[in-house]
């Protein structure tokens, strides 16, 4: 639990390191190499610890030195169901080990997946593609067992939806499958392009064509890589939104304009100000509230290059301070507005609808999911006791508590926030936030 005394503008500077949603996948890619890999700019977050544990049970020697991770996969070995199951429910990454383990060992076991509870989050695309590659998939009470009695061969495959994880699954499997793979309707998020860069350094042949088509020519062997992870654009946007909601000013060192273009357009439309410093070594983006009223907007989340679903929650908190009616249509996940009930208790005026409001009809419209929000602002937020439901929503609760008058208690920070935000308490204190941990007797 964190105690937050709100009402203080956040002022100062924070550093963002490598993106959680690339680092964890690049760690999995290291399994495919015949020699060690080195990954730099690795954040100290729990998801990295979880993947470290998963690699270690499979015989990979993993060492962290500062923010550089060394991974030696030369002695990869099968792990027992019990050892792997220690990691059940902790993250969604285990599903991505399938291809690399099938290539290295001929079999794989995947425990029940964890990750944030923001929708059904099925893995049907993953398993379907793996079967096409030639994997045999068997489920039992313990988890999912996979084998590849005849090896894995290239496929022609079209995703029903440009899923980030399923695209990564196909990439990590196709790079060493026999023959060529053509993936259509692929996700093309910057983290996926960075994963492609990692795989290319390892010796893979991957062509990104127009119209979401990716072609992968399978190779017989991949070696280790040296790579600096791209910066975390979700964390960067979280600090930007915190600056706006608290009427402060935050320089986010490491934030990259190119990967945040859509967010920057939204930030400016709302009335926020920013300035890009593109120095390659210590550049970043300064975000601030210019002192004029914030403006309402109609937005919808989408796959890249659209507005990221993980930017939605911090933006909604900032929109509670905009002068008028805003709309947020969530099209990626069916259940990503649960956190707004806590914001309502703080005085925010937010209503949820099952219709596709303000934009294009999406997959959830006819299925009665509350996936559109109307935010009427500005609302004076007041302190409350808040229960964090998931990672990104959790950070938005922190932002709301910092923007509110009075003292809030936020529960669940260690369980959720530490999964994806490095040293967030130190960073908050450095920005002048008035936070404290309860004194334990
Ligand atoms: N989907 C299916 N079947 C599948 C896979 C996905 O129906 O087999 C659906 C999902 O249910 C969802 C949509 O496709 O409605 C998109 O899911 P996607 O596969 O793209 O998401 P993911 O790979 O599970 C990653 C990030 C999420 C981020 C999404 C979208 C990681 C570890 N997670 O999830 O990040 O929201 O892409 O960009 O990379 C976070 O960091 O807090 C987080 C949730």
Describe the model.
The strands form six sheets. Strands 21-22-1-23 form a four-stranded mixed β-sheet, with helices on one face. Strands 2-14-16-15 form a four-stranded mixed β-sheet. The protein has a four-stranded mixed β-sheet with strand order 4-5-3-13, with helices on one face. The protein is of the alpha+beta class. Strand 9 (156-158), helix 6 (164-174) and strand 10 (180-184) form a beta-alpha-beta unit. It has helices at 20-29, 46-57, 81-85, 98-105, 124-133, 164-174, 190-202, 233-245, 261-270, 312-319, 340-345, 391-403, 413-416, 424-430; strands spanning 2-5, 11-15, 37-40, 61-65, 68-72, 107-110, 136-139, 144-147, 156-158, 180-184, 205-208, 214-217, 226-228, 249-253, 273-277, 284-288, 298-300, 324-329, 349-353, 372-377, 385-387, 407-411, 434-436. It is 29% helix and 23% strand. The chain has two domains: 2-16 and 232-436, Alpha-beta prism (UDP-n-acetylglucosamine1-carboxyvinyl-transferase, Chain); 20-228, UDP-n-acetylglucosamine1-carboxyvinyl-transferase, Chain (Alpha-beta prism). It binds uridine-diphosphate-2(N-acetylglucosaminyl) butyric acid. Residues 20-21, 92, 116, 119-126, 161, 163-166, 187, 234, 308-310, 332-333, 391-392, 420 line the site of uridine-diphosphate-2(N-acetylglucosaminyl) butyric acid.
Please estimate the helix content.
25-40%
Q: Between the first and last Cα atoms, what is the distance in angstroms?
A: 15 Å
Biggest beta sheet summary: 4 strands, mixed
**Unique ligands:** uridine-diphosphate-2(N-acetylglucosaminyl) butyric acid
CATH-defined topology of the largest domain: UDP-n-acetylglucosamine1-carboxyvinyl-transferase, Chain
Low-confidence stretches: none
Tally of contiguous helical segments = 14
Overall shape: globular
* Assigned CATH superfamily of the largest domain: Enolpyruvate transferase domain
Structural class: alpha+beta
- CATH class categorisation of the largest domain: Alpha Beta
Compute the number of strand runs: 23
How many structural units, i.e. domains?
2
Per CATH, which architecture of the largest domain?
Alpha-beta prism
Radius of gyration: 22 Å
* Strand-residue proportion: 15-25%
Mean pLDDT: 95
Spatial sequence of strands, sheet with the most strands? 21-22-1-23
